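For practice. Supply one:
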Amino acid sequence: MSEEKEESFPVHEAVKVLEGETIYKTAKWWMAVLKIESFGRTNVAVYLWVKRGDKWKRQQKLTVGDLETWEKIKENVDKMLKA
């Protein structure tokens, strides 16, 4: 896992981070892709946190549970970015 060394990913206590990669981190925004386990399921999630005061708060989260869903998302994102 290549998690931030100075602090762990700020997820809910019920979420176990199995693996994680920071996409970018600024003074105010932090985006990461995490492989997580919660409620007995393993998923991949894209998190976006915003820093409020001295704490990171989750702004958005996209969870992908299977490869078929990811392929549909990726295909459409690629298409829109090329347009």
